[in-house]
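Supplementary Methods. Inverse-folding protocol.

Structures were first reduced to a discrete structure-token string of length 168. This string, shown here, constituted the complete conditioning input.
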């Protein structure tokens, strides 16, 4: 599983790096040579969508997304577990149809392309759809693990840190 999670992190990070490089390169070209990278805006939007879906996958699995734990902090162990189960079930209920609809979008793009280079949008949407599917599957895995009394934790969370028990 560590390899899978590492691969997911790498995919998201590479797309974020690509966004930064394209944006920085475009700014440099625009100010130095009064020209721009074709499709830089459309391309970075598509890449951002891809990075977000792949990032959501791990954040959901580890339960490390931003959360306000006002109620959770005051609950006992059983209450926290129930709240985690409910929150994860709601996340699954959201991510499964979202992943499905992204795949529907992939099927409906036809021959649409980017503005300048006419790169097929289907390529970008397909990579995003795989990320959305991975997010839905990992949310479901987290739900099953929580139901069984286990909680996934990223290795970077220190056992002694204040948010370590909940991943917040």
């Amino acid at each position: 599983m560590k390899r899978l999670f590492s691969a997911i992190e790498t995919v998201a990070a590479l797309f974020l790096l690509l966004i930064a490089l394209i944006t920085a390169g475009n700014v440099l070209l625009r100010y130095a040579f009064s020209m721009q990278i074709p499709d830089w805006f459309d391309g970075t939007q598509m890449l951002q969508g891809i990075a977000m879906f792949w990032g959501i996958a791990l954040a959901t699995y580890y339960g490390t997304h931003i959360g306000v734990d006002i109620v959770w902090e005051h609950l006992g162990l059983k209450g926290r577990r129930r709240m985690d189960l409910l929150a994860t079930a709601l996340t699954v209920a959201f991510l499964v149809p979202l992943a499905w609809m992204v795949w529907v979008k992939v099927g409906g793009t036809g021959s649409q392309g980017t503005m300048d280079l006419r790169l097929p949008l289907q390529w970008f949407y397909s990579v995003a759809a795989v990320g959305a599917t991975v997010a839905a599957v990992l949310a479901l895995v987290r739900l099953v693990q929580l139901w069984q009394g286990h909680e996934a934790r990223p290795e970077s969370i220190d056992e002694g840190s204040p948010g370590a028990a909940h991943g917040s």
